[in-house]
Design a protein that fits this description.
alpha+beta; 5-stranded antiparallel beta sheet; 4-stranded antiparallel beta sheet
């Protein structure tokens, strides 16, 4: 069941979004060679709690971290570890979530560690472009397939693979609500979008094939061919006036 939010509820969700976005920016600013993903995780938890929030990921389904930290060929759900130390030329996807007053904000960004290769930079640029295109399509009267098509058409035109098994989702008082939001699809298909829906739109794009492999810890997902992957995500409310990004700085709420 899709839970539509009232304008007042969407307004309330902006605080969880603000905290999640602030934490992601500040943790991302600490990304550099020599830093462990556990250090980034500890920083994220401290920042979330300092803002009066609760880490949304910690303990969720047994997940041990406050962030997901996925490096290079790792697509999503990387568990932070003191043994994973960032190296020059890596890329890292950091996914943060905060609960504030019972509402959840969820967002992710993929960062360059030091100097990265041109192909990795192109992957980051294209995946971010895919995210903004998906957000732009989150309008009343469109369909879920319009979001997926917007993402897929950009990624595949660049020769990249679009992950199929892991998708975006509805969000509200629960981190994962209906509907699922695939990053692939056909225009004018799927659930019709209506004002009051709040979605986490999160393209996961691979440099090579779209195929994935689940790692033995039951959480981490990697590309099957070992090539890098990028992940960008924002929480967006669908309103009568168009999409409103909730995980952002104040005054920067609409897709550009």
């Amino acid at each position: 069941m899709i839970i539509r939010k009232s304008p007042a509820e969407i307004e309330a969700m902006k605080e969880a979004g603000r905290v999640s976005a602030k934490v992601l920016r500040e943790v991302g600013a600490r990304v550099r060679p020599g830093v462990s993903t556990l250090e980034l995780d500890e920083l994220a938890e401290a920042l979330i709690r300092a803002e009066g929030g609760i880490p949304a990921f910690k303990g969720y389904g047994g997940f041990p971290g406050s962030i997901c930290a996925s490096v290079n060929e790792q697509i999503v759900h990387g568990i932070p570890s003191a043994g994973v130390v960032l190296q020059d030329g890596d890329i890292i996807s950091i996914d943060t979530g905060a609960i504030v007053d019972g509402w959840v904000g969820d967002n992710a960004w993929t960062y360059a560690v030091g100097r990265i290769s041109p192909e990795k930079q192109r992957l980051l640029d294209v995946t971010e472009k895919c995210m903004w295109a998906g957000l732009e399509a989150a309008r009343p009267g469109n369909h879920l397939g319009d979001i997926g098509h917007a993402v897929q058409s950009i990624a595949e035109a660049e020769g990249f693979g679009v992950v199929r098994e892991y998708v975006g989702h509805g969000i509200g008082r629960d981190m994962h609500e209906d509907p699922n939001v695939p990053n692939f699809g056909h225009r004018h298909t799927g659930v019709k979008l209506e004002a009051g829906m709040v979605l986490a739109i999160e393209p996961m794009i691979n440099l090579g094939t779209h195929k994935t492999r689940q790692m033995p810890d039951g959480w981490l997902v990697c590309t099957r061919d070992g090539l890098p992957s990028a992940h960008f995500e924002k929480t967006v409310a669908i309103t009568e006036d168009g999409p409103v990004v909730l995980t952002c700085k104040e005054g920067h709420r609409r897709p550009v």
